[in-house]
Design a protein that fits this description.
The chain is of the alpha/beta class and 324 residues long. The protein has a single domain (22-314), classed as Metallo-beta-lactamase, Chain A (4-Layer Sandwich), CATH 3.60.15. It has ten helices and 17 strands. The chain has helices at residues 2-14, 17-20, 56-65, 81-84, 87-93, 112-116, 118-126, 193-201, 224-230, 250-257; strands at 23-27, 35-39, 45-50, 70-75, 97-103, 132-133, 147-153, 156-157, 175-180, 183-187, 210-212, 234-237, 264-269, 286-288, 298-302, 308-313, 316-321. Helix 5 (87-93) packs across helix 7 (118-126) and helix 8 (193-201) crosses helix 9 (224-230). The longest helix is centred in the N-terminal third of the chain and has 13 residues, at 2-14. The protein binds zinc ion (ZN). Residues 34, 80, 82-83, 190, 216 line the site of zinc ion (ZN).
Length: 324
């Protein structure tokens, strides 16, 4: 017993970094868009979407705060401005290089109007033309300490043998599951109920600690069966305060509240328009409850040696248990 204790002390002494490693996920306040910056336990950088045009500065500032100068892996979930519009700014004006990029591919099927869209052309010039088509089931090897798995891409989910391609750009989003020890995080871009249902029926993602609400809390996403299977402890909704789409929808907030066990639901911004269908969680759960430009970014931190993970926003820290 004594020798085992000495051996454990020796391991801690010889390999201290193995015991201080953490996974950090910044769910960035992209003001009605999506962007998540992941700092892996070994210090690599993964960016999943990059918000709207001109939003590279907030991402660049976070990278600098973390002492990083580049993005090791960028994933563009789908070809909508609020998910890839910021990449041009990040690469060309903020001077952040992207070492490897992935997207949902299938560009040969895009409509002529999309190919002529300024934001699409800028995305292609910045990283898109060299991006690798990320297909479902592919595991991205970025850090041996954690796994990054593509659960869905192009409307096709892992294990689906005879896929029927969809044509709704939102539902074609890439969905990713990150795991580190017992901690897991799911993010599905703007996937909607058809793909969510297939993920649930395939039993592909269960009992996560944190998920980003699909499609900003829209009524066409967060399928009931899918949410029951996901059973998140924490849901983060990336929404703007002035969106014409009235995100998040009241009906979706009540669906989240009816889950058992009940998750804690957070928003990056308070929805301030008076649309009848848009709603809000209580102010204490909103990172930016009042203004457009205050930074309502969330930071999720998990470590292998703790049975808790934490959520930080606006000077508040909350701890949650990691599920067994
Ligand atoms: Zn979106």
């Amino acid at each position: 017993m004594k020798s085992a204790f000495i051996a454990a002390l020796l391991i801690i002494f010889l390999y201290p970094s193995a015991f201080s490693q953490v996974l950090k996920i910044y769910q960035i306040d992209a003001e009605q868009g999506d962007a998540a910056l992941v700092i892996t336990p070994s210090g690599k950088t993964l960016l999943i979407d990059c918000g709207k045009k001109g939003q590279g500065e907030r991402i660049s500032a976070l990278l600098k705060k973390e002492g990083k100068n580049n993005i090791d892996v960028f994933i563009c979930t789908h070809y909508h401005e609020d998910h890839y519009g910021g990449i041009d700014d990040l690469v060309n004006r903020q001077g952040i290089s992207v070492l490897k990029a992935y997207d949902r591919g299938d560009k040969q099927y895009l409509r002529a109007a999309k190919l002529k869209e300024k934001t699409y052309i800028a995305y292609q010039a910045a990283v898109g033309s060299k991006a690798v088509h990320l297909k479902r089931e592919r595991v991205i090897s970025l850090d041996p300490e954690m796994t990054i798995t593509c659960i869905a891409s192009g409307g096709v989910v892992a294990g689906e043998s005879s896929p029927i391609p969809g044509n709704d750009e939102n539902d074609l989003s890439i969905a990713i599951l990150l795991t580190y020890g017992k901690f897991s995080y799911f993010t599905g871009g703007d996937i909607e109920s058809p793909t969510e249902k297939k993920i649930a029926m395939g039993n592909l993602v269960k009992n996560v600690e944190v998920c980003k609400a699909d499609h900003h809390g829209a009524e066409t996403s967060s399928d009931s069966m899918f949410m029951v299977m996901l059973s998140p402890s924490v849901i983060i909704i990336s929404n703007g305060n002035d969106g014409e789409y009235q995100h998040p929808r009241k009906v979706i907030l009540s669906r989240y509240n009816s889950l058992e066990p009940k998750p804690d639901v957070y928003q990056t911004n308070k929805y301030l328009r008076s649309g009848p269908d848009g709603g809000n969680v209580p102010d204490g759960f909103i990172a930016d409850p009042e203004t457009v430009d205050k930074d309502g970014t969330f930071l999720v931190t998990a470590s292998k040696t703790s049975n808790q993970f934490s959520l930080n926003y606006g000077g508040v820290t909350k701890n949650y248990p990691v599920k067994e």
